[in-house]
Amino acid sequence: MSGIYGLLGKDDRDRAFRVQNLGAEVIYDAVSELLDSWNEGLQKALGVFVEAETETFKKRYKLPGGGKLQEMGQNTQAQAAARKRTGQYDVAFPLKEYSAAFGGNRVDMAYMTLEELDNHLKTIFTEDAATLRFLMLDRLFNNVQGSFGDNDHGTLLIEGLANGDAVVYPPVIGSATEATEDHYLEAGYLATAISDSDNPYTTIRDELTHHTKRIQGGQNIVVFINNAEVAETEALTDFDPLSDNFVRDGEDTAVPFGLPTALPGRIIGRSNGVWIVEWDFIPATYMYGQDIDQPAPLFMRTDPASTGLPGGLALISEGKGKGPLEGSVWSRRTGFGVGNRLNGVCMELAAGGSYTKPTIV
Question: Among residues 40, 37, 32, which one has the least CA distance to residue 324?
């Protein structure tokens, strides 16, 4: 993102709040332009995990059933017993406000340079990104149903991925019977034990594909890992590393191609039919897998347009002085909940018996 002084065509050492030099309205417009660019770019980054923004507080997913046709024998006059699909589950989304304040006295503002103002703005943008990242990952890795007291709709139950509760999902490949699902897994072995025989990637891949279909030649399944799991991953027999930008591959070297784009972190290679992405915001000894060609798991709630409240990160000016940002408040109103509970798998690399939610930072 370019600095605010770039938008203004000024030197970064210029005083930001000298109204007689730049003008309050000019600075305010430049900040608004930066905000628009930030919100647009952040929406693209969220697209991996977020299917859509929604103004609704609750959604209902209706699921197809399973089973086989009823055998009627040779008596074509017989009437099959009536059946009705009943599979469904409800999900809901919280909505809270997150904010940061910016301000200073008239002397601070008079001496502040555009570079200093730019650093203040970057700090707010960094805090905004960190907040959204935390909310997304905290919801995805949390296998316990949450609740939110909505002022207009009462207590909302916030779901994570499929967690072994009473919801019955369509049959997996190889079965004709609906069944419950749990996408919060414990490996049964430590991260240091990852090997060809104890391979978390095949488990995550199979868990993500057994409700849909397995495509010949593989599909766009991505598993995000911490740097702590890179060495064991690269030691797998089936691991094909990504090409080094400064190394020319030999004729007999397998090189991954068709890389997915707009992923956070760094793609390090492909193994056992999945892309491996090193992203250190994934807690060590945990992995998260998702099929990026299927509807993303999360929905991001926003205020209804009829309220007039702005979407995204917004500048709410409450300045008491002449400075355009003096005493201002920056706000984002949002919340995340899982909608598609089958497109995501969290795995803990441990041998403690059951999945335990990690600490998200």
Answer: 32
In this structure, which amino acid lies at residue 268? I
245: left (phi over 0), alpha (psi -120 to 50) or beta: alpha
Q: Which fold has domain 4-64+86-160+297-338?
A: Major capsid protein gp5 fold (3.30.2400)
Radius of gyration of the chain (CA): 25
> Following CA atoms 223, 228, 231, 235 in sequence, which dihedral angle do they give, to the nearest 10 degrees?
-50
The string of pLDDT tens digits covering residues 190-222 is 999 999 999 999 999 999 998 776 666 668 999
| Amino acid identity, position 73 | G
Show the 3-state SS of the chain. Answer: CCCHHHHHCCCCCCECCCCCCCCHHHHHHHHHHHHHHHHHHHHHHHCCCEEEEECCCEEEEECCCCCCCCCCCCCCCCCCCCCCCCCEEEEECCCEEEEEEECCCHHHHHHCEHHHHHHHHHHHHHHHHHHHHHHHHHHHHCCCCEEEEECCCEEEEECCCCECCCCCECCCCCCCCCECCECEEECCCCHHHCCCCCCHHHHHHHHHHCCCCCCCCCCCEEEEECHHHHHHHHCCCCCEECCCCCCCCCCCCCCCCCCCCCCCCEEEEEECCEEEEECCCCCCCEEEEEECCCCCCEEEECCCHHHCCCCCCEEECCCCCCCCCCCEEEEEEEEEEECCCCCCEEEECCCCCCCCCCCCC
86: CB partners within 8 A, 6+ apart = 65
Cα separation, 275 vs 241, whole angstroms: 10
Confidence band, pLDDT 50/70/90 cuts, at residue 27: low
pTM: 0.85
For CATH 3.30.2400, the residue range(s) in the chain are 4-64+86-160+297-338
